[in-house]
Amino acid sequence: MNIFIHEWKSYRKSTLIWSLSLAGLTILLFSMFPAIARDAENFKRLLEGFPEPVRKAVGLELDSIASFLGFYSYMFLYVSLCGAIQAMNLGTSLLTKEIREKTADFLLTKPVTRKQVLTSKLLAAVVSLIMTNIFFLTAANLMASIVKTESYSVSAFILISISLFLLQLIFLAIGVLVSVIIPRIKSVLSVSLGTVFAFFMLGIFGSAAGDEAMRYITPFKYFDPAYIVKNSAYEPAFLTMGAGIILAAILAVYYIYSKRDIAI
Amino acid sequence: MNLFFRELKANSKSLILWCIGILLMVASGMSKFGGVSSSGQSMNELMKAMPKALQAIMGTGSLDISTAGGYYGILFLYLMVMGAIHASMLGSTIVSKEERDKTVEFLLVKPISRNKVITWKLIAALVNVLIFNIVTFISSATVVEYYNDGISLHGDIALLLAGMFILQLIFLFLGTAIASATMNPKAAGSVSTAILMGTFLLSIIIDISSSIDFLKYLTPFKYFEAKQVMFGEGLDVVFLILSASFIFIFLFVTYKLYKVKDMAV
Hints:
Radius of gyration of chain A: 20 Å
GO molecular function, one term (chain B): ABC-type transporter activity
Helix content of chain A: over 70%
Distance between the termini of chain A: 25 Å
Largest sheet of chain A: none
GO cellular component, one term (chain B): plasma membrane
Structural class of chain B: mainly alpha
Number of strands of chain B: 0
Helix content of chain B: over 70%
Radius of gyration of chain B: 20 Å
Order of helices and strands of chain B: HHHHHHHHHHH
Oligomer: heterodimer
Distance between the termini of chain B: 25 Å
Number of helices of chain B: 11
Number of domains of chain B: 1
Strand content of chain A: under 5%
Protein name (chain B): ABC-2 type transport system permease protein
Largest interface: A-B, 43 and 45 residues
Pfam families (chain B): ABC2_membrane_2
Keywords (chain B): Membrane, Transmembrane, Transmembrane helix
Shape of chain A: elongated
């Protein structure tokens, strides 16, 4: 419990900064919707002539591009990019910061098992992500009620919003796993930024090609907003895939960390 | 000089990883081109009719994705982001890592002035950035040429990569300036990345909303856009001057502050 409180305190500030920036980004992006909705109305008729593969390439259905949820799906990509960076950062630094700051021996000589240490740290990280998501959800709901032009499916909206949390959990798990596999991480930021951007770009170019198999590789494609809007549900295959990644990564982390050599 | 080789060696592994990333990015990005090109004949006229904000949402901007050059233009944005991340991380860590790894005392008691230390570090970083740029150019030119069936695009790509080099320099020296200015070595990387993400998101927001077009002077990602460099008037003089002054200011700050920096030990 002490470890949990200590960890939470050390993340408090960065969590607050991340939460506020994410909420700010959300508000900013939402505030652009009214102008776009006006533009789109005029353009909608022209769109009929679009060839099918091109429509697929840009990931938005013809009829939803101008809609509120269509716009939300588009802007959500950038919100999820930021969220993924936050989660991956958190995950990668969770265990490595003790080594970098030479506090690992202090921590690990305390009368707690490594598993307990790991559990407290993971819990603190999850709490930090939950905080961020509460901020994001509040901002998104608030802005949605202000800028919406038509009634939209609230359940789809909530499901898309919550997929941020699921995506973050996946990247948190990947981050912790990477941090116990790579022997010595000097700079957390370069590892996490590199990984997240690699997945992000894979997602963008994967969707341009309409490649189904590609979707399994990058978590950014697990929660496809277009599918959620249409069905008001997550795709079971990808939900399982995401849960599988999290479970496998966390199990591996417990196993590796409990017998890992700690460089001091 | 020893310092220079020491830095080159220290950064060689990450540079190789980055170069592999670039190669994969260009190759996999352009390999998708085949699928799109067959159906894009009518895209051009339609794109012109589309409002600017919608173009941004569609992800293509005003580029014609039915040609290899236009398709590369979209890819180029992400290459720029990669170059900027690499440069800003490199710039901030090459200065701050001595404090982070507690090697700063060892370094600074050597019989060379701080000016020399920072100069060699900067030169080493420049070489890294240059290699990154050259690898991007060679891989882009080769792969784009493979898919291109019109006139050669080597000149256009060289011009784009020159723009990217300037962008890399801006972020490299931004990184070193922040690392020299900040007291906390851990903060240097986060602050420069935050600025990088902020300017990247700003460039996207400008794409969506044309009413804040004047903000484009604030984000380097808007300085050398593919559609302008390849299909417009080339590198814009205003942006070149702006970039030069940014680079100069950041360099000045780096030297000025590093000389009087109170090292965290």
